[in-house]
């Protein structure tokens, strides 16, 4: 239900357009495909994804010898899910370590995308699953970032390890790992600064953080989650590409999906970057974070 509500904006525009299209065209012909293509592009599904979908649709319509638009919905949904999943079905779960071992999650992303909020929401979610969670204030660059994380820590009820503004983020995270080990924490979530203006610095900083983490815990960080703002559309894709070059991103959290009519960006991200979307942000509140389920997403757009 939450998922459906969060997608309302996308559904309102996208779905009504598709409905209207199906009502106007009794027959599935080339003109129908062209209009559908346009609607999908406007929803930010992305050029390559749309082209792939159209090929699949044309093939399927021919194979099934479909003459009218009845049943086309079902095929569109099926194909969209297939394109998204690329053989990996269902929800892409967090890589959590077995009980008794510390999981380290690193968060990356530029300022303003909703990174801090997402860290808070994820901490809340994990806590509700019975995990002991700790936060590391590794964004020592942006003014106010540490306080903001502290506020979320209080809201969620978990400890925040911090130093003063301007200190070395790798040192903060080093401290946090040791504190987490001592206190039997299950999941440590580390914030980082999202400076995209200088890619070399960003890379260096993230490399150093990685080095420090993996020296303390082999195979960690267990997740590197990139927060992207769905309302920025194709810009989010460009950011993702840059972060992908700078570090080993293991999953994406797409924030503010509730704030855009262009929710098709999820499909574009998956198709272009081949990184799973692990969670989506569907609002500003503490429990407005949902695991991303491709099937529910696609069918949620049409239902
Ligand atoms: P950061 O600079 O990346 O840490 O961004 P913040 O966490 O401070 O979030 C920036 C703004 O986006 C805040 O006003 C948040 O309430 C808002 N925000 C974050 N996630 C979502 C979401 O999923 N939906 C909506 N509507 N707003 C969000």
Short description:
Its EC number is 3.6.5.4. The protein has 303 residues and is of the alpha/beta class.
Write the layout of secondary structure elements.
Blueprint: H1 2-6, H2 8-24, H3 30-42, H4 47-63, H5 72-85, E1 103-108, H6 115-128, E2 133-136, H7 145-156, E3 159-161, H8 169-182, E4 187-190, H9 199-216, E5 223-229, H10 234-246, E6 251-255, H11 265-273, E7 277-281, E8 289-291, H12 294-302
Parallel strand pairs: 1-4, 1-5, 2-3, 2-4, 5-6, 6-7
Antiparallel strand pairs: 7-8
Features:
about 300 residues, alpha/beta, eight-stranded mixed beta sheet, 12 helices, about 50% helix, about 10% strand, elongated, binds guanosine-5'-diphosphate, EC 3.6.5.4, signal recognition particle binding
Description:
There is one protein chain. By secondary structure, this protein is an alpha/beta fold. Helix content is 51%, strand content 12%. It is built from 12 helices and 8 strands. It has helices at 2-6, 8-24, 30-42, 47-63, 72-85, 115-128, 145-156, 169-182, 199-216, 234-246, 265-273, 294-302; strands spanning 103-108, 133-136, 159-161, 187-190, 223-229, 251-255, 277-281, 289-291. It has an 8-stranded mixed β-sheet with strand order 3-2-4-1-5-6-7-8, with helices on both faces. Strand 5 (223-229), helix 10 (234-246) and strand 6 (251-255) form a beta-alpha-beta unit. The mean pLDDT is 91. Guanosine-5'-diphosphate (GDP) binds next to helix 6.
């Amino acid at each position: 239900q939450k998922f459906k509500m969060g997608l309302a904006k996308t559904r309102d525009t996208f779905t009504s357009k598709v409905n209207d299209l199906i009502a106007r065209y009794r027959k599935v012909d080339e003109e129908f495909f062209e209009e559908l293509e346009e609607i999908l592009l406007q929803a930010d599904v992305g050029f390559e994804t749309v082209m792939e979908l159209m090929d699949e649709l044309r093939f399927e319509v021919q194979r099934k010898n479909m003459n009218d638009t009845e049943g086309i919905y079902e095929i569109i949904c099926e194909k969209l899910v297939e394109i998204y999943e690329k053989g990996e079905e269902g929800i892409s779960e967090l890589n959590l370590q077995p009980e008794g071992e510390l999981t380290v999650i690193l968060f990356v992303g530029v300022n303003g995308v909703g990174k801090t909020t997402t860290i808070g929401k994820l901490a809340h979610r994990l806590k509700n699953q019975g995990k002991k969670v700790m936060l590391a204030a590794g964004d020592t660059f942006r003014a106010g970032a540490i306080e903001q994380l502290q506020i979320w820590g209080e809201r969620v009820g978990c400890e925040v390890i911090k130093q003063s503004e301007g200190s070395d983020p790798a040192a903060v995270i080093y401290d946090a790992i040791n504190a987490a080990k001592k206190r039997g924490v299950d999941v440590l979530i580390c914030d980082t600064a999202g400076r995209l203006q200088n890619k070399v610095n960003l890379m260096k900083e993230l490399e150093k953080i990685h080095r420090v983490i993996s020296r303390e815990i082999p195979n960690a960080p267990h997740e590197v989650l990139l927060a992207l703002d769905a309302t920025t559309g194709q810009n989010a894709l460009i950011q993702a590409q840059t972060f992908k070059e700078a570090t080993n991103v293991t999953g994406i959290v797409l924030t503010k999906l509730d704030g855009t009519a262009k929710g098709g960006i999820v499909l574009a991200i998956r198709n272009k970057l081949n990184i799973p979307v692990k969670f989506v942000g569907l609002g500003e509140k503490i429990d407005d974070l949902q695991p991303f389920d491709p099937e529910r997403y696609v069918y949620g757009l049409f239902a």
